Amino acid sequence: MARITSFTTTDVRFPTSRTLDGSDAMNPDPDYSAAYLVIGTDAGDGHTGHGFAFTIGRGNDVQVAAIDLLGPHLLGRDLDSVLGDMGATWRSLVHDSQLRWLGPEKGVMHMAVSAAVNALWDLKAKRAGLPLWRLLARMSPEELVALVDFRYLTDALTPEEALELLRRAEPGRAQRIDRLLAEGYPAYTTTPGWLGYSDDKLVRLSRAAVADGFTQIKLKVGADLDHDVRRMRLVREAVGPEIRVAVDANQRWDVGTAVEWINALAPFDPWWVEEPTSPDDVLGHAAIRRSVAPVKVATGEHVPNRVVFKQMLQAGALDVLQIDAARVAGVNENIAILLLAAKFGVPVCPHAGGVGLCELVRHLSLFDYAAVSADIGDRVIEYVDHLHENFLDPATVRGGSYTAPLMPGFSAQMTDSALREFAYPHGPAWAPAPGAPAPSATAAAKEHP
Amino acid sequence: MARITSFTTTDVRFPTSRTLDGSDAMNPDPDYSAAYLVIGTDAGDGHTGHGFAFTIGRGNDVQVAAIDLLGPHLLGRDLDSVLGDMGATWRSLVHDSQLRWLGPEKGVMHMAVSAAVNALWDLKAKRAGLPLWRLLARMSPEELVALVDFRYLTDALTPEEALELLRRAEPGRAQRIDRLLAEGYPAYTTTPGWLGYSDDKLVRLSRAAVADGFTQIKLKVGADLDHDVRRMRLVREAVGPEIRVAVDANQRWDVGTAVEWINALAPFDPWWVEEPTSPDDVLGHAAIRRSVAPVKVATGEHVPNRVVFKQMLQAGALDVLQIDAARVAGVNENIAILLLAAKFGVPVCPHAGGVGLCELVRHLSLFDYAAVSADIGDRVIEYVDHLHENFLDPATVRGGSYTAPLMPGFSAQMTDSALREFAYPHGPAWAPAPGAPAPSATAAAKEHP
């Protein structure tokens, strides 16, 4: 009988604020970071499970400490029982009554559960010799439904309805998998549009994205209206009328401001507006959506859990639902959200970028197409082209589409050299220049402008 | 010029799980805990500011670490500028862009802000020589509005509307303060109704509560329907028809189950049902409320922030709004919530109990009556009669009403002996019996049943 024998966390941070990669209206200077977890066993098969929570710098140490709280739930446990009933395992991690108080089911503690759940799925898929999306896509509807905690969902989706949805999508699974292997999954790119980039860089990268085969790009907005109108015009002129240009306000606006701002950008035909206001504001998103149609409303990367997604769908607040691989409690909760979206007929276009989010979330979209929604239509996965070199099985995009990952696991594993180089605060990447303050002091001194 | 010179945190835990004080359907074995903060200055006046986040055991160390992340925002800063513009200070703590990612505005990081904000208010009130509620109640409408961050609120409440509300409540402030000093503020008690108590203890404590002058008591429900029906009948028989008996499900139910369960308890005339489902489920609470009237729906102790409270009010989801002193980001955000409740005409009946929550929240209700809602009608503050002995200015209830606190500050300060005794894991209260495992191992081994 094999057991879980190690549960090891690392604080990994990339100094992305030095180049303003990732800058937007709410996050002017992120240092993309991962609270990183490796789960080891005594199975003797050489496999380890990797998972992480994504943060943007300060506080990544606290995120690591929150993951550590989950170790006692897994250390010493029988591997087959943990991996064999991932529904029960998920519930044991999410419903620890004392830890639940720290959310409940939101923020630091919920993201910690995400890291542990995803690490277990990485391990399970490696042991099965399959990339995660294929492991999930060969599970029966009954097995998939057993992964989902329907608590708080049954007024919108019952287990029976979920089963029915999955059964309806069973015919054609094999053909859809073949199509994914041959053609990949459509992507869009956010690389050109970071708020801290110059106009020249914006135009140059937008043209390059189109030349690379992308048919949708995304622009960060929300800091200054005149600035946004100018940048939106430049991009529209650079890419022509056929390319979809989404805008992303990163929660910057109140409801009224959102409507005014989007209307001012409307002449340049934005495809969707993302995070126009607080991710908690279901009714606010619904009000904005009613006022800005035909511009679509998208959100999700900061939606804390399935309960808020449920309401977004019930209230008709979204045209596009954006799952995040590591903010809700991992694979299981994302399956719940994919099922909800399928029930309500809303397309899922995942959030990615960050550290490793492209690597993870492609598995969920591929699984969704293969076994849940069976729809690929207007769906696209976000792509941002940095930090992939730090992963063993990096996301790759060709001709504007993600290629289907083939390596066993959930693609969450960083390279050993990345873990050494970017360990915080003692990795070489964080070594201070002679005479400069230590990195922790520098980081702490940065405040929101 | 005085500066903030120290920012000291302590992990304080009370072994309440040994007696099942605080046990309910979701929290069978809480160890009531405080992630405790003391802010010191070089002003030479002997005053320190005290604040805390309340947790129920495991994870309190992570909560402490999250509070520590805020130290660099305050250490070394000019005291007059920090305390003189508490609106700006609040925003600087909540909108640190990197730390905000960990919520945003929810969970561990937001509770950490609560501890820091409340500690600063404790310090400010001590320096003014006033209990917090009186300090707030002498501020002008303009000063109060400047404390509130209206981001994400303006579709429901604008600064101008808030000003108008506060101005309308200005006449009579002095008389209402006199009434509070003379009569206190009505309380209800949860002491009899913990789920882990025997029927005998439940009946005995319910009768004792009525004898002590309480006109409302509360019963934990939600684990087993037959059990709840029996306990509700016993209590109703023990206290008679005139005493209000509220029930509290602590988020145990889905929407459909909540409606069925409450209808089964309806013959015993429950006054309100508290936390029938997920605190994130605005639409769910609204649906439950429509189905169980005239039983009232109450929630709020786990509502993460003002944005969700705003929607609870917009959706008509609540008959009773329950603020918590230390889950949203402290005094400033609670003022925003009191203003929202006043705008929508919904009574505020605070959550208390826990560690120190009774001590804190009475200040907010007294301030609300004096300067915001000017209404006391059906309003009651929760009271639970344990752990008060650990505070310098403990909550006191006479004849079923909280007495008005008179000591300068926010009543957040624990006694030195409590801080020594209950420091975790090395305080004497946590010393293992000979041969028993160390407390950290014991704590980690407890799982949700």
Automatic annotation (TrEMBL), chains A, B:
PROSITE patterns listed in its UniProt record: MR_MLE_2
Span of the signal peptide: none
Reported cofactor(s): Mg(2+)
Protein origin, superkingdom: Bacteria
All copies of domain Mandelate racemase/muconate lactonizing enzyme C-terminal, residue ranges: 199-295
Keywords, in A-Z order: Lyase, Magnesium, Metal-binding
UniProt KW Metal-binding keyword: yes
InterPro entries on file: Enolase-like_C_sf, Enolase-like_N, Enolase_C-like, L-fuconate_dehydratase, Mandel_Rmase/mucon_lact_enz_CS, Mandelate_racemase_C, Mandelate_racemase_N_dom, RHMD-like
EC number: 4.2.1.68
Pfam families xref list: MR_MLE_C (PF13378), MR_MLE_N (PF02746)
Catalytic activity line of the entry: L-fuconate = 2-dehydro-3-deoxy-L-fuconate + H2O
Family annotation (Gene3D superfamilies): Enolase-like C-terminal domain, Enolase-like, N-terminal domain
EC class of the enzyme, as a word: lyase
Keyword Magnesium: yes
Name recorded for this polypeptide: L-fuconate dehydratase
Lineage: Bacteria, Bacillati, Actinomycetota, Actinomycetes, Streptosporangiales
